[in-house]
Design goal:
By secondary structure, this protein is α+β, with helices and mostly antiparallel strands. The protein has 2 domains: 276 residues, FAD/NAD(P)-binding domain; 159 residues, Succinate dehydrogenase/fumarate reductase flavoprotein, catalytic domain (Flavocytochrome C3, Chain A, domain 1, Alpha-Beta Complex), CATH 3.90.700.10. The strands form 5 sheets. Strands 1, 2, 8, 9, 10, 11, 20 and 21 form an 8-stranded mixed sheet that branches. It is globular, with a radius of gyration of 23 Å. Bound molecules: flavin-adenine dinucleotide. The site of flavin-adenine dinucleotide has 42 residues, from helix 1, helix 2, strand 9, strand 18 and helix 15. Flavin-adenine dinucleotide binds next to helix 1, helix 2, strand 9, strand 18 and helix 15.
Length: 490
């Protein structure tokens, strides 16, 4: 049977495309999901589901979180507007000015109206992301601007709602069906996909195909090839189905690679985390409160400014830097003053504990003498400036040590002292395909590939070196919606 639109993948970008295609007149829409039903949903299922988007007035958030003021008195007064310029500034700062300006413009410009579309058409429910984005200061909760709202039940809710909405719209979903190759007519137009399903090989014809099947983060051979060593040893935070299949299929027919192919998103995670994401653990292995303490490597040395910026703007880069430390192992160390401020996700593992720094260090697999020296030097240098404020760049810094700590550099002087071992876990890769503003795939002759569209992690050019929290899902939704509309019109 032939379809109007085939969407390859079962994550946020794929469903934004499938639902948009249906909404824009495509009658027969097919979603191919390589994973079995119980592992469906790609990285989207594992995500914290925080979305970064623009708003000029805080009241524009009311439609997503109508009870915010009741639940968190002072919400409207405390949250700063997040206009286009602020999103652009954040994106360009962390990507060292390299984010593709056209794609960045589309992402930013359409972020708010796509949130409204997710709510109305996608049937998403939203809530404030208290556990990861809210910081309690006294009796109030402080919120960062731009990225503080997530779907209810996080990625699990986001993914579940997408499948439900798609089914209600009559979109066909085939599980355990991995696309392997695109078919093309003599004109070069993409005419469908060849996939391996439960009953063997099958060819599905379509007027247009949207590739939305993730990056190559799960594939150790491609990670080594493009990211280098030791990425082939990295733990994978999310789906174990994203092997770069869609990228390969598109490159095989001449699609243009675009963006930062040696770059990826990786975060500090529990060193004992499983090798791949586990459905029920979702993103709970993250260890992102490092800015409140210090990190030492197995040589017993600090090696980075833990307080360089708000963690939403450093976490996606620090995972890779941790991975490159000796044995890809680092210890986060905190004192009693900040334990109540650690993200709730820390409660999913037991830390090392002691009433003295010496007693703590002895339990870690580090050079003990050097580690104690590092912590004593840090304590002599720390505590300059202030006052301490976990909700803002507070300027509490160190003096006279390398690397310095620029913010939140309180002394480690209050027992109990605790330490969490962490490694770097890969989330997704940045390298992708070049697309037009209509999400159509461009070939290496700079012409368009008729009938082929892409979205989500497969889009190249947006992220380089680093990434501002909450942008992956927003990008998937914005470009998925555009890709679905373009595919329906094709
Ligand atoms: C632990 C974790 C937490 C995160 N938290 C956030 C967050 O809070 N905010 C945010 O913005 N981003 C977050 N992200 C990133 C975000 O999840 C991704 O950017 C986003 O989900 C990517 O969507 P996607 O649809 O492109 O890919 P995915 O959601 O990964 O979907 C890819 C789909 O393609 C399928 N597939 C793969 N190969 C084939 C094939 N050959 N044929 C058919 N199907 C195939 C997969 O099974 C999967 O269903 C997080 C990621 C992780 C892992």
């Amino acid at each position: 049977m032939d379809y109007d639109v085939i969407v390859v993948g079962g994550g946020n970008a794929a469903f934004a495309a499938a639902v948009s295609a249906r909404e824009n007149g495509a009658k027969r829409v097919l979603v191919l999901e390589k994973a079995p039903k119980e592992k469906r949903g790609g990285n989207t299922h594992f995500s914290g589901a925080v979305f970064r988007f623009i708003y000029d007035r805080v009241s524009e958030l009311d439609r997503f979180v109508p009870d915010a003021e009741r639940d968190y008195p002072g919400f409207h007064r405390g949250v700063q507007p997040y206009p286009k310029e602020a999103f652009r500034e954040d994106l360009m700062r962390v990507t060292q000015g390299r984010s593709d300006p056209e794609l960045a413009g589309i992402l930013i410009e359409h972020s708010y109206d796509t949130m409204c579309w997710l709510q109305e058409t996608g049937k998403m429910e939203f809530e404030l992301a208290l556990s990861v984005m809210g910081v309690r200061v006294g009796n109030e909760v402080k919120w960062p601007r731009g990225a503080m709202i997530r779907t209810a039940h996080e990625g699990v809710g986001l993914s579940r709602t997408w499948f439900k909405t798609a089914e209600q719209m009559g979109i066909e979903i085939r599980y355990e069906t991995g696309a392997q190759r695109l078919t093309q007519g003599e004109s070069g137009r993409v005419t469908g996909v060849v996939a391996r399903g439960p009953d063997g090989m099958a060819t599905f014809g379509a007027k247009a195909v949207v590739l939305a099947c993730g990056g190559f983060e799960t594939n150790p051979e491609w990670r080594l090839r493009y990211l280098g060593s030791p990425w082939d040893h990295a733990k994978v935070r999310g789906s174990n189905f994203n092997y770069g299949d869609g990228l390969k299929m598109a490159l095989d027919i001449g699609a243009m690679p675009w963006g930062h192919w040696s770059g990826c998103h990786a975060t500090p995670i529990n060193a004992e985390a499983p090798d791949y994401g586990v459905q029920h653990l979702t993103d709970k292995t993250n260890r992102l409160s490092y800015f409140l303490g210090v990190m030492i490597n197995v040589e017993g040395k600090r090696w980075i400014d833990e307080g360089a910026d708000i963690n939403s703007f450093t976490y996606a880069q620090y995972g890779g830097l941790i991975l490159k430390q000796p044995r890809s192992l680092v210890y986060q160390i905190f004192d009693g003053k900040v334990l109540s401020l650690l993200e709730p996700r820390y409660s999913t593992s037991e830390p090392f504990r002691s009433d003295t720094l010496e007693g703590l260090v002895k339990q870690l697999q580090v050079d003990h003498k050097q580690a104690l020296k590092t912590l004593e030097e840090y304590n002599r240098a720390a505590g300059r400036g202030g006052p301490f404020n976990p909700a803002a760049l507070d300027g509490v810094h160190t003096d006279g040590i390398e690397p310095k700590k620029s913010n939140w550099a309180q002394k480690l002087d209050t027992p109990p002292f605790v330490s969490y071992p962490v490694t770097g876990g890969i989330t997704f890769t940045f390298g992708g395909l070049k697309i037009t503003k209509d999400a159509q795939v461009v070939a290496t002759d700079w012409k368009l590939i008729p009938g082929l569209y892409t979205c989500g992690e497969m889009v190249g050019g947006l992220f380089h070196y680093n990434y501002p929290l909450g942008t992956g899902l927003m990008s998937g939704a914005v470009f998925g919606r555009i890709a679905g509309r373009s595919a329906a019109r094709a």
